[in-house]
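re: ur question from earlier - yeah i can do the single chain one, its not a big deal. heres the input i used so u can compare w yours
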Amino acid sequence: MTNRRRLFCLFGLRFEAKRTNMLSLRSLLVVLGSASFLLSANVANAQSKARATPAEILFQKAVKDMQAGQYEEACQALDASQKLEPKPGTTYALADCEMTRGHSADAYQQYIKYLDLFEKMKSPEREKHAERAAAAKEQKKKIEAELLFEKAKTALAAGRVDEACGALSQSQGIDPKPGTLFALADCEESRGRIATALEHYTKYLGLYASMMGAMRDKHGERARLSEERRRKLEPVVPRLKLVWVGEPPAGLLVTRGGEDLGPVALGIQFAVDPGVHVFVTRVPGKPPVERKVRLEKGTKKVLELRAEDSSLVEEKPKDTTQGGPKKPVDTSNGPAKSPGMHAWKIGGLAAMGVGGATLVAGGVFGYLALQQKDVVNEVCDENFACGKAGMLEVDKFRSLGDTSTALFIVGTAAAGAGLTFFLLAPTAPKEERAALRIRSMVLPGSGFVGLEGAF
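and the output i got, formated as tokens:
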């Protein structure tokens, strides 16, 4: 090997040895640096724990207690932390903790405190708490509705019906629920505001029609009672119609109890609660005119309004009984116009009269079937699940429909037979006279057609 090659090999070996030593030194420095960082972090963490305030330590304890499901201990720790160092986050956590363990009244007070603190926040702290503030507002609203409902139950048990209805109305306005609406309808009925109760029962049944599954089963009995009471109240609720004498002037304002009824209220009959009602009419350039009207159960009145004066006209009472017969319909054809009319023609006229009256009765039952169909649609959902109460309504609908169909068939046959007899009858002798009277009566759920006369 030449001297040059030996020198090159020796130089290469020395270079490798030097590079190896450099790498080892670098690795050692890295290890020492990492160890120093970890040691510093541990020291800093220890110092941070040492610097934690008593309020922060209590908050950390409360978090652990909530994670373990020990909400009573957690709420106590949060309350103590808040007293030592009031913070919005601690207040919200305490409200949430009280809500979780079922102390709604305590949670309500904490949500109020938190929302007061939120209103005083500035950016960027306000943006940080925006989501929690929205949740706090929703929870506060639900708790208010719940507390008002409980207040209504207490007042009702003590016989303070007006107070109970007022609390239920507020609860429903804050957090609308079907159960609260039914309770409000029942309360309004008990204090005699039957038009208001009727409105609430009808609205509740509309909500019930959209319920499904377990929710529908839960409200089944209340829905049955609502329908029963709605039918009972419908015929006895007072009705009032407001009419303006002449052309209503521009700018006309009609109010009741300070509420603007709007121009659509004129000429429309609407339900009102029994008692005294005050209506005020205002026309630009003229003094307001105030009129009072008293309505009792089952009454129907018309209130005529004028710019200077108004008067009250009471409608004739209408029969609202459910079982009473209607006035018989006299469809008499009288004595035969021709003194020589043959008996076959008289019989044909009679049969046609019976057929016509039967067709009319069929129409009446058809109309009742359509009304009953609306009831079926209310108590049955879109999958035709009706429940026990609903099936009774379905049976009524089928019965009315079958009766209508049968009457149409009989009426058509009788009318056709009568027309045939009338057309085929020979001319009667001059001395032969006849008189005929057809009488029919339609009753709810039944009816009859009768024939009397001489041939």
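Confidence is low (pLDDT under 50) at residues 1-23, 25-49, 310-339, 428-455. not sure if urs matches, ping me
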